[in-house]
Structures
1.
Amino acid sequence: MAPTLSSDMTTMRRAAVVVVALASLLAGVAAAGAVTFSATNAASSTAGGKRFGRDIGVAYSRRVLSDASSFCWKTFSQPNPGSRKPVSSVTLVVEDIGGVAFTSGNGIHLSAQYVGGYSGDIKTEAAGVLYHEVTHVWQWDGQGKANGGLIEGIADYVRLKAGYAPGHWGKPGQGDRWDQGYDVTARFLDYCDSLKPGFVAQLNAKMKGGYSDDFFAQILGKNVQQLWKDYKAKYGG
Ligand SMILES: [Zn+2]
């Protein structure tokens, strides 16, 4: 009888471990602020929509929305929901539109035409685009007063740090102005963050209530024009 009892005990211990694991999982969901993520393919009858369904899919997209949100909170040093933008859901709709993608509020719109025409690994490209757009959902915009180039630069900075910088991006040190936007500003912000790790998180936090170029000097002790000169000099520009 002893072996049976031992076996039962093992089963009970395993069951207890499963219960604890489930409880931790549920607690993890609650700690994430109960944000919901959804993805819809509203262009499934088009060639691009069909490619989305075949090569990317709504299940993968939902996972990227969730992973990218967690990555934003980490990058912005916002471990608690109270410090984040009050957003309870992030949605993605694939539509028969031009361009690449855009975000309005908590809604991301991805172009099925872009998906259909892209030559290369569309799954990785879509993930990179979604990291950029998800950043727009979570970043502060200085009450609408922030420099547009900086807003796009922060979105591409998050994409860069997540490992989704495409091969065609400019290299570090390239560009004419710090607020040129996108990859140019993302690379510059990466330089600023290397001077003081957590710089981008601090900059984003300051952008909750308004905006001034002086935020760079307040955090790094040098104004943004001087930082850009130093950055260009470092790469021989
Ligand atoms: Zn953008």
2.
Amino acid sequence: MINRRSFVGLAIGFSLVSGINTTSVQAEAILMAAHRTDESFMRQALEEARRGDFPFGAVIVCDGKVMASGHNVGIRKNDPTAHGEITAIRNFISKYPSNNLKQATIYTTGEPCPMCMGAIIWSGFKRVVYAASIKELSSRIGQIMITSHTIADAAPESKIEITGGILASEALELFK
Ligand SMILES: [Zn+2]
């Protein structure tokens, strides 16, 4: 198990390391190693992304089964908040109790933006798995440069597990 804070410090560079080190550790979210089935679920999220107005997709998995999926419909729905993760959450709660999200993992082709990571934490997800990081995505499309890890750190109640980098190059390819 890797300390997520030190990972974030390494990932975003020296300029923020001192700030991170002087912040007291409150959240217990941790960077977790990949699970055996992560690639297969991420491939389903990539299929969703191919259908998006912007190439972002997500699937929600409970007990090894995909329960809901979504892709970016920001243009079609005239809704700038209709990111893949938000769409997947809305599709899930249209069918199942929101409480079931507490046992769920969300697979998303892009690291959740601050809005989506906030929604993921408010929903109580157990785990989030992403493909391309915000930093990687920022070379393809505009991003708010705050990592999902930073948002999780700011939510002391959340114990969400975060795994990144699953099929990242395939997610980035979708922007060509
Ligand atoms: Zn988002």
